[in-house]
Amino acid sequence: MDLGFEDEGILRKIKCGELTDVIVVNGFLSETESDVSDWLSLLGEVYHSNTVHHFNWEASSKLKVLNDSATGDLFKAVIDLGFDGVTAKGVLSFVLSAYNVGRVPWQSAIDSSEMAGRTLARYLDKQDKQFILMGHSLGARVLYHCLKSMVSKDKVTTAILLGGAVDEETGWGELLEKHSKMSIYNCHSDNDLVLKHLYPVKDGESSPIGLKPINIDLPDRLRNIDMSIMKLGHMEYKTKNVGTLLNLHINRTDSEPYEIAVFRGGGLLGLFGLLS
């Protein structure tokens, strides 16, 4: 382990284990303490015996103004509810108007993601072991830039992208060719209001992978996991239920999709059937 990264607060070990190290990367509206707890809820179902590190990047501070504001509370409430109707969209439009005058520096975090990805790439290139990478929202964008920037091609075994704020047409085939031993799991949901309303983030980008599959026919190395039936909003990926479903996909040997029976009650989502 590169102690320099630990000393600088860039990497923080949040769980000890014996298997391949996992690095998790936060994204939009992520606050360190609560987000680590969320990650552990998910990881308890899929990588419960692994050492886990949290990669801290500039988005956390740039988005803190939203987290600390009344607008942020309202925004997160709308996201959590995941309404599809006009009322929710109207409230979301109000919140996004705050973004337009600078209270939500989404674009600034987008710009920071490339530098963060290069920083993580330099760290991984120095290591003599392999890693599993997991990124949520803009954290998935950080991972894209990391994988693109890396010199070494055998350090990452798995990349898991949750509600990714990065375009579907940005060279995923080239990344899979470069990292020839790596598998990608793209978890997406068409209930994601954040990606529907904040995209495109740059000119020429209009199809975030958090809303749709990555269109590459490599079923042994790329799996698109459609979680729309679970009614997942942008902030609802880091849960035990998602970890359970993800674990089933990682450990299965065929590429056919699961049929998922779900229910929602008392604000909680529950899986009561997972059938192949």
Main beta sheet strand tally, sense and closure: 7 strands, mixed
Number of helices: 11
Please give the CATH architecture: 3-Layer(aba) Sandwich
CATH topology category name: Rossmann fold
Q: Residue ranges: pLDDT <50 for 5 or more in a row?
A: 69-74, 77-86, 259-270, 272-276
Helix content: 40-55%
Helix/strand-derived class? alpha/beta
Portion of residues in beta strands equals 15-25%
Radius of gyration: 18 Å
Terminal residue distance? 40 Å
CATH evolutionary superfamily: Alpha/Beta hydrolase fold, catalytic domain
Q: Average the pLDDT over all residues and give the rounded result.
A: 77
Count of the separate structural domains: 1
Order of strands in the sheet with most strands: 1-3-2-4-5-6-7
List the helices and strands in order: HEEHEHHHHHEHEHEHEHEE
Subcellular location: Membrane
Main location: membrane
Pfam families: DUF726 (PF05277)
Membrane topology: Multi-pass membrane protein
Can you tell me about this structure?
- Helix 2 links the parallel strand 2 (19-25) and strand 3 (50-55).
- The longest helix is centred in the middle third of the chain and has 21 residues, at 106-126.
- The protein is built from 11 helices and 9 strands.
- Residues 69-74, 77-86, 259-270 and 272-276 have low confidence and may be disordered.
- It starts with a helix and ends with a strand.
- The protein has one domain (3-63, 105-275): Alpha/Beta hydrolase fold, catalytic domain (Rossmann fold).
- With 276 residues, the chain is α/β, with parallel strands linked by helices.
- It is found in: Membrane.
